[in-house]
Amino acid sequence: MSFSKGLLIGGLLGTTYALLTAKKTGLERQQAISHYLTDVTMQAQTVQSNAVDLQNTAGQLSNEIKTTAVDSLADISDAVQTFSFEAQPRVAQISESIKRLTDDLKAL
């Protein structure tokens, strides 16, 4: 006997046994299945709704990051330029001090 025939026969025998030994009547089982399918459908709709909400939120986050990044980069660029301008005299003074120290060391 092939695997598929054995699987089919086993499934039929298992289903028959379950139906014959079940503690619920046919109507009760139908109602239970109906409630189960209703619950699964509602949960699937909830998952779908949550997925749409997640997609919308991700889009909003992406837009927010784009606008914030542009503003932040501009602020950072301005701060770097300001720092460079303000630090220029100090850097020149430090360079001059290093040059004098180097010359003094050479003289020793």
TrEMBL record:
A Pfam family per the record: YtxH
Entry protein name: YtxH domain-containing protein
InterPro entries: YtxH
